Amino acid sequence: MALIVQKYGGTSVGSPERIKNVAKRVAKARAEGHDVVVVVSAMSGETNRLVALAHEMQEFPDPRELDVVLATGEQVTIGLLAMALKDIGVPAKSYTGWQVAVQTDDAHTKARIDHIDGGKMRADLKEGRVVIVAGFQGVTAGGDISTLGRGGSDTSAVALAAALEADECQIYTDVDGVYTTDPRVVPLPALLLAGMSTISFEEMLELASLGSKVLQIRSVEFAGKYKVRLRVLSSLEDGGEGTLITFEEDENMEQAVVKGIAFDKNQARINVRGVSDKPGIAYQILGSVADANIEVDMIIQNVGAQGTTDFSFTVPRGDYKQTLDLMNGLKDSLGAAEVNGDDTVCKVSIVGVGMRSHSGVAAQMFRAMAEEGINIQMISTSEIKVSVLIDEKYMELATRVLHKTFGLEQA
Ligand code: ASP
Ligand code: MG
């Protein structure tokens, strides 16, 4: 007998019919003798609807109150799923995040989990109940409702699995595992062959951070930190093994050097031109961005010439305007000649632990871009990834071309 945490995303609980299917799947795991904790998202489209409603009240919704509104989506699904389970004779009990309690910091709309008290859930499990917990939400030390950022139910599930020392955390989604890239961009027939049975934790971390929407990045970080056994499976089909995220690297030499292609449109580039080339400038620029709680991704500083240098970096698109304003405010103290930017860019990345032992992978990527006439604006690399910033209108083309260049069709 094992303790399993299962998480079902918005599509999987998108209609009463689908919730009933989830109940059946949970009942099956329980019939196999497992203790089951279920984490659910809001029904598909619901969180977007709530965000839109909030924006009708306030241009910039008050973060505390926005969380009060957003957390309702998941509260509906936990109750409905508990009913569906009871209806087929499975004892179950639903809990909101604060009831469990999932303690978070007080960064509303992007809170981090500090601690989860497993006591209540363990008591229920012992009594033979399925425990259902609302994903995406928690409670601050002051008792306010918080949410964990979009896609945060994944993180809820992994954090619960860690707190309860579960044997496995299963993320059920509408794709049957992790793909080499997003099925919406590269046509499915090519991809069907490419569903992976395993992916290394590091690769998954890169893909998640690079915009692959399969798992929220924090959930992957959490899994790494607490060594949670994590699996991504399809909730729409039966029987597949999905993709297991492994902590040992695959020694298999035939494994593709590039394991996946990620892309991300949530990017904007800021340029600060002609700043003084002296100590403290990078700190002045990026420190002020960090103080505004804006996450910087790619950074380039040129070698200085005639005492000045150019500085470029990327931020999430939603933070573009604020960052531009910040830089314009600093323009004089930086001695900058010009501040400008572009929020019609995207980042496309290749990822694979195999890159460590293969040279020329980046060059191959750049050649593929060149052959398509796609201009590269920025480049960043790590041991296991290469990312390029390009015009967003080439995003799909670049992804498709790279998928082919690195032989992922036959993976
Ligand atoms: N319902 C939330 C969202 O749409 C959380 C989640 O689904 O993971 O982002
Ligand atoms: Mg999700």
Structural key phrases:
411 residues, alpha/beta, eight-stranded mixed β-sheet, 13 helices, 36% helix, binds aspartic acid, binds magnesium ion
How would you describe what is shown here?
The protein is of the alpha/beta class and 411 residues long. It is built from 13 helices and 18 strands. The strands form three sheets. It has an eight-stranded mixed β-sheet with strand order 3-6-2-1-9-11-12-10, sandwiched between helices. Strand 1, helix 1 and strand 2 form a beta-alpha-beta unit. Helix 1 crosses helix 3 (63-87) and helix 8 (201-209) packs antiparallel against helix 9 (217-226). The longest helix is centred in the first third of the chain and has 25 residues, at 63-87. The radius of gyration is 23 Å and the shape is globular. The chain starts with a strand and ends in a 6-residue tail after the last helix. The mean pLDDT is 90. Residues 9, 151, 154 line the site of magnesium ion.
